Amino acid sequence: MYKKTYPLSFPKDFLWGGATAANQVEGAWDADGKGLTTAEVVKKAENRRETTMGDVTKQSIKTAIKDHSDKFYPKRRGVDFYHHYKEDIKLFAEMGFKVYRFSIAWGRIFPQGDEKEPNEAGLAFYDKVIAELLKYNIKPLITLSHYEMPINLTLKHNGWSDRHAIKEFTRFTEVVFKRYRGKVPYWLTFNEINTGAWGFHETGAIDSDLNEHDQLQLRYQALHHQFVASALATKQLHEIDPKAQMGCMIARMQTYPATPNPTDVRAAQVADEQNLFFTDVQARGEYPEYMNRYFAENELQITMEPQDQKLLKQFPVDFITFSYYMSTVTKAGDKQKTVGNFASGGRNPYLEESDWGWQIDPIGLRVTLNELWDRYRLPLMVVENGLGAVDKVEADGSIHDAYRIDYLRKHIVEMQEAIRDGVELIGYTTWGPIDLISASTSEMSKRYGFIYVDQDDAGNGSLKRSRKDSFYWYQRVISSNGDSLE
């Protein structure tokens, strides 16, 4: 008779923490030799249910470069983590963080992207950030490319659409791997790499003037170059710092069929494959067969060098990470509708949604964790999950964000259930432990943090940090290793 115990809760060494991106928190966009990046030329959105991340043209970039302010480009100012990092990390430590996920701004290390020597001031900044984290026994988890690359590489080579980007990226990665050897146990290559199928914000390649076919051709070619760069970076890391591990990262939006009709079930499966394609390449080391049909039916030709497939196979990632905010619905024959401002699919009548139209589905996180574990059998980490909401500051300065606590609690419960199902989940970093500039709309009023930052959408405010109710709640969650969720 088969009998085996199963885990009842989170492992003792579970990595609790939070996650941010350089272009959303750092600010100091032109300080200490930093170069302008693709994230800092995207104008803020006027409608919170829309995004301007795909509206970039050569002319809009020229206009942005001439504009030396942050009025229309809030990611340039962030929340000034650049000058507040000690204070912010101390607050993370007070919550009990075991890990902090952040990104290195490529433009701080190589301002134009193609210099032969790195910018020492940029490296020195991350020296200090990492040292501060280690002072509190917080493990750094670093994303190498989080929706930004030096804008010069867009202007010269149209970003990742040109294979030249691989050379510049791997020069950057080699420098930071050597600089932080022995200090950073976990690295990620590209943030939400699958969103490169949506265009500029992830690929750094201008394609808004192309027809649909040519857009797809350019985007998938750019993504192939990123796959190769990821494999080469993994090879570098294993050689330079053998104890460190490399992960991949996708935006995971669990997809359901709209009805039990087999045509809807199959349509949902196809839609899901368009996300799993990216982890298939980076974790299994090869292009999956189902993409052969997709490329053929869309008349796409991916140009590869002779060694590319061998590189992908030899240097897959060590673990898989993903963001999870919502799920979507797919119906056969329906054109993909926008859900919220950052995803495509239909609406689910059984789910509530945020003010930004993002449908809230905690159980979908358990479904996703089980599917990814069954498919890859690699350690998993949820590196983004959170609720963007408008917070009200009371007269006494308190912020009662019970809605955020409720959202996170429900998702943590489902993570625990997934662990009981047998999933090897090693960490959880909530998105935006401190309020930051929104990725999709560049607004400040879409707040995710446990820590409130006094700044409005126009950049006005003292930048004073203060603790929300959720700060103390997450502190209890971490100290109890997920046992205390009330």
UniProtKB/TrEMBL annotation:
Keywords: Glycosidase, Hydrolase. GO terms for cellular component: cytosol. GO terms for biological process: carbohydrate catabolic process. It comes from the Bacteria. SUPFAM superfamilies: (Trans)glycosidases. One of its GO terms (molecular function) is beta-glucosidase activity. The keyword ATP-binding does not apply. It holds the Pfam family Glyco_hydro_1. PANTHER family: 6-PHOSPHO-BETA-GLUCOSIDASE ASCB-RELATED, GLYCOSYL HYDROLASE. Belongs to the glycosyl hydrolase 1 family. This is Beta-glucosidase. It comes from Ligilactobacillus pobuzihii.
